[in-house]
């Protein structure tokens, strides 16, 4: 039986390397594609040692369509996991054209090339940012209201529609997985280096001997701070593996979260406890524009249609970082 071979774009990224880790462990061959703009080759070095194998890395920008076509021509890929993207919400407001180019146009081109070269499976890393700023305290359903409030969210939503067109083409399969707030790590070498996510932001502040900041303490939540669904990166990777191995059609869009919310105040407390700094000062600041009070996943579809449930608790995710 031939081993499946998968192309993972953004393959040197925080999420991409966790997916590669599980795919290799599952007996799949992988080729990683990354511009190394945010990805780290050291993560791939770690995976090579862990699995005692060479892992091909193509250092290519996702907008270099000629290079990508050459890679598809020279490999017989079973599928593509597309995690490559620009993902800073604030930056997307400053650079909407670049975000459209990378997140939407490049995804469209990649899908066209996949179709041309007979790649049948496509898994797209999407985001809860497509839900925007819900005015309800109900968990978000895949078929619920979509109202992205940033170019980042809009470009990912537009890209989802192209992915859905691809997987609805006879013979093709796949899904767009909408991640909520990703946290945790499988190994210290694969840590998140983003400056956009709450836990790395808190740790960054503390390492600089600065006080973490909580933006908004007057939300209509239990402790007045924003509530989010924090899902472990190992669960995100596991959801991709389950989707890659699906033998029957799966929904075109699936939330990946825990279905449980945690407040910003809780997260800061857990991080401070983990590093024995429970008495550290925390600054409370006014709300930031566009931050919804509550953004959590309804995970029923993942459970019923994908047979997937997250297994890591928030405490385990935060402990994994130390």
Overview of this structure, please?
With 322 residues, the chain is of the alpha/beta class. Helix content is 38%, strand content 17%. It contains eleven helices and 14 strands. It has helices at residues 14-25, 41-51, 65-73, 89-94, 96-116, 151-167, 198-207, 233-244, 264-274, 300-305, 314-319; strands spanning 5-9, 29-34, 57-59, 79-82, 121-127, 173-179, 181-183, 213-215, 227-228, 230-232, 253-256, 262-263, 283-285, 294-295. The chain has a seven-stranded parallel β-sheet, sandwiched between helices. The chain has a three-stranded mixed β-sheet with strand order 12-9-14. It has a two-stranded parallel ribbon with strand order 7-10. Strand 5, helix 6 and strand 6 (173-179) form a beta-alpha-beta unit. Helix 1 runs parallel beside helix 2 (41-51). The termini are far apart. The mean pLDDT is 95. Its EC number is 5.1.3.2. Its cofactor is NAD(+). One of its GO terms (biological process) is galactose catabolic process via UDP-galactose, Leloir pathway. Keywords: Carbohydrate metabolism, Isomerase, NAD. This is UDP-glucose 4-epimerase.
